[in-house]
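Input set for joint prediction.
Command: fold jointly, output tokens.
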Amino acid sequence: MDKDRARQLIDAAQNRDICDSVIRNAKVVDVCNKEIFTADVYIKDGYFVGFDGNRRAKTEIDAKGRYMLPGFIDAHCHIESSHLSPSEFSDAVVPCGTTTVIADPHEICNVTGLDGMEYMLKASENIPLSVFLMFPSCVPATAFEHSGAILNAPEIEKFIDNPRVLGLGEMMNYPGVASADSTVMDKMQCAWKREKNIDGHAPSITGPALDSYAAAGITTDHECETPAELHDKIRKGMYVMLREGTACRNVLQLLPGVNERNCNRILFCTDDRQPQSIVQDGHVNYGVSLAIQHGLDPISAITAATLNAATCYHLADRGMIVPGKRADFFLSSSIDNGIKAEEVFILGAKQAENGKILHKAMHTKPENVSGKMDVKDFSAAKLSFRPQSDHVKVIEIIPGGVVTGSGEAWIKRDENGEWIHDDGQDVLKLAVIERHHGTGNASTALISGYGMKHGAVATSIAHDSHNIIVVGDNDSDMVKAVEKLIAIGGGITMFKDGEELGTHVLEIAGLMTDLSLEEVTECLSKMHDIADKRLHVSKEIDPFMTLCFMALPVIPALKLTDCGLFDVNAFAFTDSEIK
Amino acid sequence: MDKDRARQLIDAAQNRDICDSVIRNAKVVDVCNKEIFTADVYIKDGYFVGFDGNRRAKTEIDAKGRYMLPGFIDAHCHIESSHLSPSEFSDAVVPCGTTTVIADPHEICNVTGLDGMEYMLKASENIPLSVFLMFPSCVPATAFEHSGAILNAPEIEKFIDNPRVLGLGEMMNYPGVASADSTVMDKMQCAWKREKNIDGHAPSITGPALDSYAAAGITTDHECETPAELHDKIRKGMYVMLREGTACRNVLQLLPGVNERNCNRILFCTDDRQPQSIVQDGHVNYGVSLAIQHGLDPISAITAATLNAATCYHLADRGMIVPGKRADFFLSSSIDNGIKAEEVFILGAKQAENGKILHKAMHTKPENVSGKMDVKDFSAAKLSFRPQSDHVKVIEIIPGGVVTGSGEAWIKRDENGEWIHDDGQDVLKLAVIERHHGTGNASTALISGYGMKHGAVATSIAHDSHNIIVVGDNDSDMVKAVEKLIAIGGGITMFKDGEELGTHVLEIAGLMTDLSLEEVTECLSKMHDIADKRLHVSKEIDPFMTLCFMALPVIPALKLTDCGLFDVNAFAFTDSEIK
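tokens >
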């Protein structure tokens, strides 16, 4: 609040001045009393003035008895997962009723470091969606791979005072916290000394093991998988997020743990939500609707997606429809049976109607985040996989998640000991090629469960360091796919018999594009079709998203980084050969 | 949180270091899940480490199955009403389970201005009780009286950045807010620009009239008198306080409006609680117990007195028993049937047991706040009451509150027109003598319902400007009483036939004393006895507290300030004569 705005609101409230607009006949969702009441809601200068009272207004909007909800707040997301730049992301999620996101630019910062932070702040500055950032706490995610940057306390200090940076992003390094590792402590100190939040990420950590993590002032968690885990994290003072992303979906798992007693410690988030999921099902509204359809009290669910998030992140200017707060809201005919954002308003101005954005968000040209492809001496030789034995470990894709198995296979090798693809076996070669510092690093391993018969698929999205990852049955297509990504500055591409079957260009850090949600989903839809029809990738998995997680050395059991095959359970590199 | 403490807590949580203490076998009140669970609770360096886990601890305390509650937070109080200095106040309320108060030093600042603010901060700095202050927003309370200071935005700016100053105190000037008065706006701007709270005080303001007040970002109210008013204020985004003071008690009035849906927007406060009430019934624990005994869910009531207040005032380090928060807590055998703080711990150290403080709080010598008695040319002549007619207005005391009636009387006058006391009539003379700036101001009027037969009672506690107020049947005793207060620097005194019957010295600004709660209550008890037995003050009223409110020109209907008789309903001075 500032004096000029306060004066405008007070004058309008006291009927000394005319309001900008009034929403008549609205069923207002009151997240404080947790009830519905019917009112005319007055707005001035983008903020709520008050209810009823026969005030004057320049514009009248008839809500026709529809529900009026505070705009939804996504408590934790990675914009990069949408493949969209912040302006296009705004255009994609605002029509779903999301008006504020708390985003962790973990992916782009892993590639481009502080340039990524700078870009995300700048590109999200003057768009309808309110974008707040958490400074990524784990760049790189582990010491077992090469990311594009190393961000520690000195780097955090440069951004943490920005009022749009709300604290430190998901602290994935549980061992670092529990051991009071000094680098980790220095990072957290940046948030502590400013009383800013630290987001958590502590899958399966409960009981006494959780105490050190909670004692470190880590205030949220979005990785709960059971009601008991949710309950314990709330007991330790944390807010627990019900996450409904694309690969990870926990709303229904966690719902049995949520009740009228603890629901004000619950938030909603999307974490990683792919463009197709946004188009098909929506955004935060999807998770909220799902929870309601499965028994959560509608107003408690709405409160979790609004007031609770505003409270948790100290966003004092939003989260409820009350005088003096931002007029971010939407109208929906139903709250019991699917929340649909029929008309979405931000700062009192209508931004979307019936799922369509009305005015495209202002676009900011990406600077210092494009074409990040510093790959040294790449050639087929880098793809060599020559184990000492025919009996080897394979990364075993498990459909429906990002966890892999540690499988085995008996393989064919040529006279030089080089792996040869066996048509009768669902085993392919996987390679990770370092792309940030021209180290020349590349590593190879075998993978099962991908299903592809012949060809290669490569992507520069490979959590969390986002090196190039490529899968294939033959080196020739794999080389072409990798070379294509280097040439275009990143993306997803498919080759077969030397032919480029399809390419999705991600020119912003190899992670995102300036295309719109519609263009991205259309392209991806074609790509999926090709992966299915021409490459015969297993129908049980997403051909691209699955690949993205095969280099993530914090998710069990077997993963491949640019430095080699990694046994996550042993938290150490391992050999392919089974001796 | 800071790095050193975090490291200690983490090391203790991970069992690398020994904890300072463990509270074994406690029924912990979990205000997040709103449930009770049994645990061993570990503490290190004054903060909670965690639950169970067979850790080591230097000291073991057996809770023997008692309830373990977070220390209570008084969301709004005036320490001055206890007559105690901050250190003695700490000793008085900590044994009741209050470990944090948010105090508005409105009274002392009305007398001593910024010196009062300085003193309250300093005197509350190193005591067990956590004292946070709200900078008083209304000094003076009105323009119709002389207070000791005028505090506006420039004065607020000097203190508002102090981390123990949480914002602007109760904004009693509703008309000033509603009219966007520039002095009021400048004061509020001090809080707005730092995102600090502004406390409210808006009795009976609801509906559209409340909108401008809520739009100004005023976040709390402790003046609700009906469930409907409570409900409306919560709807406008405000936290509503259930107040249980001495003169004003709203818990039972408001309770029907509190339910499981809105209870996280409820706080508890004591506002003005007299020393006798603290001794007899307790402090915040009394209001909480009362609410529980009359049907509020015990854990919801406890949550209101702990987590809700911490949330509302952004006190991130307290309000719940979870790892990383201050180990401020107490043990109670019961929560359903009266909460009694049997053992009280602050920062993990036991401070009180069975209602007794264990170590007296460090006392700070009052500086620049003593003997504030600048009275010019006082003599019997100042007490002259010579109306133009025998038919006059009288201030009519109404037992049980601070509202007065506007009564009438036919009086006796001497040959000079001077009022003469009529033994057959319960009408006395009331005078207010300015004591801050030596203006020589004094005003007189008549008052009914006090009951005293013969003598005079005077006090330097006279809300909100705290000039000297004196009541009596004869000028001689009245003069002696006033002279006594001037001589001792303030307090309460009684005279009869020239004899000093009793005096309660309030040497700190004429409002507070360095005596202990026990000494104060003993003195007051004797004084009450004398007022009853020797002065025959009406048994329906408190002889001293009633007097304190007779100069408060914001409470209807008729009051007397140092500037004259004030008609609160007309908000203007008035004559005594009825024409």
